[in-house]
Amino acid sequence: MDLVRLSLVNQLALRLSSDGRARQSYLAQDRSSGRIFTLPRALALALRRVQAAERGDAEARKRVGSEELRDVSGLLGQIRAARGQDRLTRRRFNPVFASFPLIDLGPLQPRMQPLARALVGPGFLVFMAALLGAALLLGIRSDWAIFSAYRNMFSLEAIATFGLVAPVLKIFHEAGHALTATRYGVRLRKGGLYLIGLYPMPYVDCTEADVSARRRHRIAISLAGILVDVTVGLIAFVLWYLVAGSYWQVLIGHVFVFSTLNSVLFNANPLTRLDGYYVMTDLLRRRNLATRASATLADLRLWAMTTGLAGSRPREPRHWGLVAYSVGSFLYRLKILYVIGFALLPRYLGLGIVVMAWGAVAMFVAPLMQDEIPRVHLDDAARRRRRWMRAGLAGGLVVALGFVPLPYHLRLDVAADVEGHYQLTTQSAGFLQALAPGGPISGGTRLAALENPALRDRAEVLDANLAGARAAYESVRGDHPAKAAMAARQVMSLSDQVAVSAREIAGLTLTAPADGVFVPSRLDRAGAFLPSGTALGAFLPVAGGAVLSGPFPERYVDKFQQGPVAAELRIAGEYLTLDPSAAALRTIIGVDRASGTRIYQLTIPADLTPASLAGRPGALRLTFAAEPLVCHIKFLIQGLAARFREAQMADRSGI
Q1: Sign of the four-CA dihedral 620, 624, 630, 632
Q2: What pLDDT, on a 0 to 100 scale, did the predictor assign at position 596?
Q3: Which has fewest Cβ within 10 Å: 133, 138, 627, 642?
Q4: DSSP 8-state symbol, 480
């Protein structure tokens, strides 16, 4: 048959997916626009025959049927229409999610080949292993002091560092993708900037890998950015110890925190559509997983909102798996937004609102704009049913907020009440000579020994003075009653001083009052001078009931004064119900620097032996009286506002 000349067909690159499964994917890429189309097997075979015929293959020309030619012509018509739409449609600037191509990286790849061959390979992994070994050695020797940088991760300095350093680190991240793609022969397209919520981030277009790279090479390209982030984090880890005591240590600590958290929470996490997601989809051989999951969830939501008139519900386990992935991804992003936002809101109210708004745009709005899921056209009946369903849900929400009561729950970290009940302190000041090791102790065992030469010298002087006073009393007792009375009073006074001195000397040695467990404190080396009242550790008896304590947040004080209704202790995998009426609060003078709130301590007895609590912290769950949901929201807002005000007061007073 005569074949109509189809010039556009030669501008399509047709490739078979290298997933290696029985259900294979056929991909066609428009070399002009870079768009990738997934084709059915029959259409892909037809396109292949037409391309061969266009190249002059007479046998292929004979095998092309009219139906196949019609299907290929339809595909080419869609591609022409897409090109025309791209030319005619002037996209408006979108500050939520916009990309700005700046440079064509393809012509630069031949120059990048030597560097790609040098860096992408076993040598880089050996370098990472050496960094990891150095980091482990430094961390063990310093008791992992670098992790103190996480405590200041929400400070203004750390946030400013993130804003300035993140784009720079992203350049290294994207360079890892680009070099790995170059190493495996994948053509790079454009490089430029993404504008996400008005915040610029570099990017490299490696989409050619979808049609030209083998599966393991695509995985390597996706992993390259994660490995670069980890490498940057390890380098910062080592440098942090080399510049100790300088401002650079603070800056490098922030870089370490950002690199590690960015890799763990975002880049390497398959629930966010970044590198870890693409690694997972290639490992599972499930491309476009997020888009299909979003579409499946949208169909289920539409089916539920129209009570079956539109949309569809999953009927196979794999479809329910897509729904679970979409819901899990949404909840994870919501959790990250909640943690970051509510860590900032109590101290930096305006900044916290800005960060939460930007995070919501980056994690929820931008992915929706990338998916481009087509809208479903509903008939009148489906639209009416959806409107009624939405009105019903809104009304139900209003009713729930105003009339559905829920109890307040508070989780506290608790341990043995050392400061109030089990603390062992020095009775007399002295130089530390010996301290018992931690562990089980029998009653009467010496726990600590101190030495104070001044006390012993004073005791000797008092003993000598007492002996002289007694001799003077005996010499005048029968002859001079007035002198005898004065001498007797002096003997009594010196006897009292000798008794006090004896108690002070006895206080230099501390013994276990009963069988129990001794947990020593970290003190200076032997020979250090310890004032009276210095904590030596905790002594936990093996008999009697235990008393637990833990920090209590100030905003729950009013709830506590009304009385908790239930208390449950979880310790070592076991649950124990406690008496909530036995709980008590004590106020500790001071302000928590992190939150700006006053410090309270909760104590509660438990049907446990104190010794059983040694090295076993627990979690206490307090339940307070139920109130409507609107009261919970009001309580949350009031708590945030109060913490913000108190944090500002603490900052101004320099506490």
Answers
A1: negative
A2: 47
A3: 133
A4: -
Instruction: Tell me phi and psi for residue 134, to 5 degrees.
Output: -65, -40
pLDDT tens figures, 361-374: 767 666 665 555 55
Q: How far, in Å, CA of 233 to CA of 147, rounded?
A: 12
Q: What is the pLDDT of residues 600-637, one digit of tens each?
A: 899 999 999 999 888 888 999 999 999 999 999 999 88
**Two tokens, residue 292:** 């299909």
Contact 556, 410 (CB under 8 A): yes
Among positive and negative, which fits the CA dihedral 476, 482, 483, 488?
A: positive
| Closest to 354 in 3D by CA, of 341, 367, 343 | 341
φ and ψ at residue 95, rounded to 5 degrees: -70, -15
Instruction: Return the DSSP state at 18.
Output: T
CA torsion angle 509 513 516 522 (round to 10): -30
Output the DSSP codes for 87-113: HH--PPP-SSEEEEEEEE-GGGHHHHH
Question: Are 550 and 622 within 8 A, CB to CB?
Answer: no
Class of residue 290 by CB neighbours under 10 A (exposed 0-12, middle 13-18, buried 19+): buried
For position 33, what pLDDT does the model report? 63
What secondary structure does DSSP assign to 216-256, as a single string? Answer: HHHHHHHHHHHHHHHHHHHHHHHHHHHTTTSHHHHHHHHHH
Per-residue tokens: 251: 């800056």
CB 190, CB 205: distance < 8 Å: yes
Distance CA 101, CA 376 (A): 32
Residue 342 contacts residue 311 (beta carbons within 8 Å)? no
Four-CA torsion 325, 327, 332, 334, nearest 10 degrees:
160
Residue 618's closest CA among 548, 552, 556, 560? Answer: 548
Which residues of the chain register pLDDT less than 50?
1-5, 20-22, 88-90, 594-596, 654-655
**DSSP class of residue 508?**
T
Among all chains, which residue has been given the structure tokens 């030319």?
87
Decide: 206 and 34 in contact? Cβ < 8 Å.
no
Per-residue three-class SS string for 544-584: CCEEEEEEECHHHHHHHHHCCCEEEEEECCEEEEECHHHCE
Measure CA of the first residue to CA of the last residue in the chain; give whole Å.
Answer: 90
Q: What is the pLDDT of residue 572?
A: 81
| pLDDT at site 646 | 64
* Partners of residue 432 on adjacent β-strands: 450
Amino acid at site 321: G
Q: Give dist(CA 381, CA 305) in Å, integer.
A: 12
C-alpha distances in Å from residue 110, one per residue of 205, 222, 441, 552, 603: 17, 21, 73, 63, 70
